[in-house]
Structure formats: C-alpha cells, structure tokens
Amino acid sequence: MTSVQDRARAWLAQDPDPDTRAELAGLLERGDAEGLLDRFGAKLEFGTAGLRGELGAGPNRMNRVTVMRAAAGLARVLGPGRHVVIGYDARHKSDVFARDTAAVLEGAGLRASVLPGPLPTPVLAFAVRHLGADAGVTVTASHNPPRDNGYKVYWGDGSQITPPIDAEISAAIDAVGPVGDLPLGGPGTLLDDSVVAAYLDAVTTLPLGEARDLRVAYTPLHGVGADTLARAFAAAGFEPPLPVAEQRDPDPDFPTVAFPNPEEPGAMDLAVALAATAGADLVLANDPDADRCAVGVPLPGGGCRMLTGDEVGGLLAEHVITHTSGERMVATTIVSSTLLGKIARAHGVGYGETLTGFKWIIKAGPGLVFGYEEAIGYSVGTTRGGSPELPVRDKDGIGAALTVTAIAAGAKRDGRTLLDLLDDQARRYGLHATTQLSFRVADLSLIKDAMTRLRATPPDRLGGHEVVRIDDLSRGDGGLPPTDGLRFTLSGDARVVVRPSGTEPKLKCYLEVVVPVADDVAPARARAAEDLAALKTDLSAALGL
User: Fold this and answer.
1) What is the pTM of this model?
2) What is the pLDDT of residues 197-230, one digit of tens each?
3) What positions carry a catalytic annotation?
4) Are 77 and 93 spatial neighbours (Cβ–Cβ below 8 Å)?
5) What distance in Å separates the CA atoms of residue 309 and residue 376, rounded to the nearest whole number?
C-alpha cells in the first residue's frame, strides 16, 4: 500500500488537471486502498488501438498525464520537424486532450495541426493523407460508455498503426519522465473548414448512381456525425436526413441510450419510431465518432428490420465492384461472413481475409476498393484515373451511409428495397446467416480458462454440424499473424470463430451457417435461424460460461 501511495503522490505532483487532482487527493485523504490500487496497480497499455479506458486519475485511467505521456512518446518516435494532424470527438475532456497533444508535440519540435472542432474520425483519417502529414491522432472512445475516452494513432498512409510501430511508441511512452518536465509549445495550427470540405468532395465521388428519391431517418447517437452527414447528403444531392431531435446534438453523457452503440438493444428505438411517423424509407445511424454505420429497413406493417454488418457488407461490396473497374480486390476479417469471398470470385476480383480490425483490412493488398468488418464498419472506394481508390483508409460511417442511401434509392426507383436485394444475393450465393454470442465477465481469468478448455477438449459436433477442421489462430494457422482465437470449420459450410475481445472484457463468438436457396428465401431464413440457435446452445455448453 505504501508504494501505491507513493506513486499516487508522485502522480499528484505532476497532474495539471484540477478535476483528477481533486479525485486523487480525496482517495489519499480517505486512505482508499482499493481505489488507489485500481488506478495505480496497473496501467493502460498502448497497442494497435492506441489507448482506451475510463476517465480518472492514475496510469490505469485516461487523463491529461496519460495523454501527455502518449504524445511525448509519439513525438520521440517521429522526431522533430514531423507533422501531426489532431482530431477529437465531443466526449468529456476530448478537446482538452487534443490541446495537450498539440502543446507536447509543438514543444518537442514537431508541427501540430488541429481540426476545427469535434468531427468524425474518418475526417481525421482523410486529413492525414490530404495534408501530407506524417501521423495523425484522434481523441475518441468511439461507442464506449460515457465514462470512457481514448487515443488512436494513424500513420502517414492514413491508416491505423500496426506492429512494430505500436511497440516502438509504447516503449517511448514508458521512457517519458514527469510531464511537468516536458517542454510545451503553442496550440499548433487550427485548421479551417477547407479540410472538411475536401473530405466531403472525396466521399461524394463514391459510386452513388443517379437515383435520389429517398427519405432517411437518422441518428448520430449524441455524437459528432450529424452536421457532416447532412453536408454530405446535400453535396450529393439527397434529401436532408431527418434527425432524431433528442439525439442530434453532441452530448458526452449520452442520456437517451444505455450504451451509445447502434448494435446495442434499444439504441435504435428513437430512430425507428421517427421512421414510422415520418414515413421514412431507410433508417441510418452513426456511432458517436461516426466511423461506423447501422442500417435498418422499415417494414410495411410497422417495425424495422435492422441489417447485420455482414448483410450491409455484402450489399456494399457488390455495388462497389459493379460500379468500379481495373485490378481490384475486396477484403474483410476472419470473423466476418464468408459471403464476400464468393462475391469476389463471382465478379473476378481479388479477395483478402485479415485479422480483426481495420488496421489489417486496409493492408490486405494492392487495388483495395472495399473493406468491411462485421461490426458495422465499412470503407467504400471508387475508381479514379483508372485505379481503385479508398478516400478514407479506415472505417467511414459517412461514406458508407451515402453509398447505402444510393443503393436504397436505386432499389426504390425499381419498386424494391434493400431486403429484396438481400434476397437476390441469397439466391445467387446461398443464404449466409450470421450472429454473435458474447460473454461479458468481471474476471478476465474466466475467458482465459474457457479458451484453455476449448483448446484441450474441442467439440466434435456443434449444432448438428460435424467439426471438420480446427484452426488455432494463436499458432498462426491459416497464414495470418498469431492472435488468440479458434476457428471451427463445420460441415455444410458453417463456421464458428471464438476470440477474446481486444477492447472489452468479453469472449466473443462469431457464428455462420449457409443454407441453399431455390426461389423462396423465407424457408431458408427459418432454417438458418434454427441452425444458429442450435450452434449457440452447443457452443455455450462447450465454453462452460
């Protein structure tokens, strides 16, 4: 306890934030051993996703000291004279963390440019390449709970950092002394709206077709997407989206949702209700930093059918492939549907499969014109000058929303909806139905124990399907870099992937079944639902959670 107290006092001496100073002083005064150990018994680790965690005092929290150390580590890896673009969302302390980052970088002899306000993460990713910068930083915790914030780093190619850069930055952060000793510079260069205008010019060159008659109900879930999306729709010639009034403006407390994630139960209720009252043809949502996009189709009898990330990914992929040319490839991750590979083969384009995360998708290979992950993240490309091009080399919820709207408008012109297009794909490629099974734990050892059991005694059958192959992804099976996970290939083209989450205390399981379709898709969907339910039951038993 004494060493923890000593570390806490040393932290207090360097902390420039009155809020976290008061928090820490109170813990010390009360002798709160548990609270101090929680903050100082561990630290947030800098990895390929940067930093993400709960706001508060100490090295195991997101705060000004943690952020200044991260900026100093980045500065040491880059070196003086380099240029870094900084963006931020509207979460608690995001603007403060952005200013601290600029001051540390400028003090270390680098050049910092700061976006003109809270903006979507894809604007930052675009700005790195647009401005020819050497790196980028965005302060965001994406769709995490209100108490969290994060720090994500991009490299000069506009994509998220990958090994070994992450390890180099992490080691440099560990070598940083007290932040009070860091030389601080000015606030950097405040960029104007021209960088946002350039981003909008880029995304409106995506393959959007000619149809524009579509009414869209939209929610940014209290995040930063509304203004940029509205400008994108206007620039592309679409009717302005109808925003959910209660969720339109940024609010770091996210008061109308339990979790600000479009995939969480209840998060889309207000948008679905608005679609019903306004007679909307489509429901769209961005997560709080607008790098992801959720899609729903209102039903004639009421209600709304929310599409899975894999379903949207399949529709976007076929649309992009059909409306681009040249030597192209598409890519997704090992936990996404196998449908994309079949679409690619049918159209004669390349296909890549990567580890989870857009940092890997973007590096799938040359000619990448579309990438997606099942967690409703998409990067939509186009053909410019005869070559495939991705305007944003990361998830882009604005570009995806525009393109989905264009697809839906074209379908409406033909008297159809996105659901009809999904049925068309099911007839062409078979019905690929996917779902998830997640286990949230308070004790991370439970996840480790479950993975150990699954490796030691793997099941022979799951949901009535024979297990025909097991890939242990920790050994690099399948030709991918090693990662903790197991992939079960099952009879009948079914598949299960089990992996610990990289950002949450969860064990995540990704299930897929493939059902042949003759003409009527409804029976195939019913059978797929039964198969997935059986898979869930057997997998839960095998995991013992």
Assistant:
1) 0.95
2) 999 999 999 999 999 999 999 999 999 999 999 9
3) 142
4) no
5) 4
